[in-house]
Design a protein that fits this description.
The chain is built from seven helices and two strands. The chain has a two-stranded antiparallel ribbon with strand order 1-2. α2 runs parallel beside α6 and α3 packs antiparallel against α6. It starts with a helix and ends with a helix.
């Protein structure tokens, strides 16, 4: 499937994720840490991509390495259990959504990063 979110610019998605956590008293460094944990991009790589037209799908496709512990992320996003999402790309996107939700809800980074 080719969902609309796949074609959205990563810079636009990043801005939305950042806004969500800033409203809750968290910060950009924490957002970057979560993205780094999931994708293995460095902070410099993340910020360099914000200046490019890369779409969200290719942001994930080009990730150096997706964290093997991402499968430990459980719960629901928009009423859909993460474990039941069949499209691997959508599942990875929803994993990041869930991590950002946890950050916005005040969870510690140690718990979010499944340490």
């Amino acid at each position: 499937m080719n969902h609309k979110i796949f074609q959205m610019p990563f810079s636009q998605i990043y801005s939305l994720l950042l806004q969500k956590v800033l409203k809750k008293g968290r910060n950009q460094e924490e957002v970057d840490t979560v993205i780094q944990w999931l994708t293995s991009y460095s902070q410099d790589q993340i910020h360099a991509m914000l200046k490019t037209p890369i779409d969200y799908k290719h942001f994930f496709l080009q990730a150096p390495s997706l964290n093997e512990k991402r499968f430990l992320i459980k719960g629901s996003i928009c009423g859909v259990k993460l474990e039941t999402i069949e499209d691997p790309m959508m599942q990875n996107i929803r994993y990041l959504d869930k991590l950002i939700d946890e950050l916005a809800k005040g969870k510690s980074l140690d718990k979010i990063l499944r340490k």
